[in-house]
Amino acid sequence: MQEKIKKLIKGALKDLKITDVEFIVEHPEDLKNGDYSTNVAMAGAKKIKTNPKELAEKIVAKLQLAQSAISEIKEITVAGAGFINFHLSRKFFAHSIEGIVNTGENIGQNGTLKDQKIMIEFTDPNPFKPFHIGHLMTNAIGESIARILEHSGAEVTRANYQGDVGLHVAKAIYMLLENPKEYLVRNESTSRQAIFIGKAYAAGSEAYENDPGAKAKIDEINKKIYSKSDEQINETYDWGFKVTMDAFQDLYEMLGTEFDFYFLESQMALVGKDIVLANVGKAAGPDGKGTIFEESDGAIVFKAEKHDPKLHTRVFITSQGLPTYETKELGLTEQKFEKAPDLDLSIIVTANEQMDYMRVVTKAVSLISPEHASKMKHISHGMMRFTAGKMSSRKGNVITGESLLNDVRDSILEKMTDREFSIVDQEKIAADVAVSAIKYSILKQSTGGDIIYDFESSISSEGDSGPYLQYSHARAKSILEKAAKENILPDPHAFPEEIFEVEKLLYKFPEIVLRSAKEYEPHYIANYLIEIARAFNSFYGNNLIVDKKDESSGYKIALTYAFSFVMKTGLHLLGIKAPDKM
RNA sequence: GCUCUCGUAGUUCAACGGAUAGAAUGCUGGCCUGCGAAGCUGGCGAUCCAAGUUCGAUUCUUGGCGAGAGCACCA
Questions:
Q1: Residues 6+ apart with CB under 8 A from A466
Q2: A2-88, which class in CATH?
Q3: Is the pTM higher than 0.90?
Q4: CA of A434 and C1' of B13: distance in angstroms?
């Protein structure tokens, strides 16, 4: 449609002998201003020294001659400072509803990324540490982007990268061994055991900072973890590793993520170190600026500022000979391309505190394997923060993903039991609604910014919320059920004269998906879904949908179908389930 | 100090250079003997400051002011 209108305008310009005018055709923000609109008159007025309104009138006159060619356009008007607005016809909307009903839940699928192989790494919680709401944030964003890319035709694999070795593990194990009565519980649920391991980690961290004796012991344990020389430590490690990883798995299941690859830091260390050592002192890329890695104060570093003044030096191998996170990241990158050699794009989702460091690593990769660097993309999101300040798992002032999910689920359950009708599988649906409340509160805003964590509003199921979307969907399903009972079939041809606002929004869904995919931004979908939910609820409030006496009832039912498909698919793209009842 | 991100109703967020800056929450009126009131419907309320580019700036540029993150052997 957009292209058709553009063509029409180009033709009109040609008739008026106006050349070289750049203009756009877009949806006006306010539906009052039509369904499409163009700024061509404003952009072109100066060129031919006239005022925009006059030019607009001239163009519209020409357009109206050609209008009959496009039956979907009902009216072309001039408004505001010289906008030309296109109002689409009743038939256009009826036709779009029919299209959605026929497409069903595949609505919005497109082939822009057909045959593209994309790996996306996200979540990245560390064994022996709590899974906190920051991980929830990375997971929500990563999973949603993965689904949006899938909807665009890409073959997506999901990867998770986890720190299975390092000081944090030693801190946790120290406390588990030091005070097993308090922390080392074995006869409880996996999640309970994991919670206590997380607590042991926080306590261990504190001891490490404040108790020199403990610090020495933890350092010792750290070495033994690497060398695997102590039976008791090995046993505790294996148990703790399994418990925390199992607990993560339970969470992924609840959140709706299935990973294809799990990468462990300990393995990346070796791979990365080899790469670094093989590139020490080498002349860098074609630009010939400096070397890749060089020695400095006994450490092996990468002086990235030599290549880009905005970057800085980072240590890759410490003076003790140990690989740092940067080196492991380097190894990880190579591993990803080894596991999936035909990868077209490798995406990493992390909090934005890692942005600068990722740039340095990417620069290093671009010098070592330029063919890989060009396929890497880092998406960084803001932090979950308290009004009081930063959350830190080291200090133990974290809200774990699990406790948040449970709290929200409990309050949802309470709401459900208050209602007059009962639902089977209440527990499960409450969990889906809780996931929705949390994910939506993360995905409704653009990914760059921080999220202020506020318990009250994060569990809200009213207004601008995930549960509101699910509720709207469940309501539509319930109406459709009633329609089926009364034997009124959906009929996209039985349309009334009135065009409902929800129709003017529904046909835009595929465009929204395209934009989300292009910009890796789920929030366009989230905001769009709120808009259509609002429009549908308003439609519901002002119309009796299932009504044998109404000739257009079949159309209203078709419209309800279309809405339910778009909502369900849209929620899926956000990683949210759409139960039929809630 | 340098780099990056960001300053929009009381609060939390939108607005791909466009029209009267949208929502939600909050406060405040009205709606369930007609399909799910987790809803609908009315009212109140905002672009950090200063220049510049543009027909047009919340958006782009520069400079202030303010917040956050990062900046060598942690991850």
A1: A433, A435, A436, A437, A438, A439, A440, A441, A574, A576
A2: alpha beta
A3: yes
A4: 20
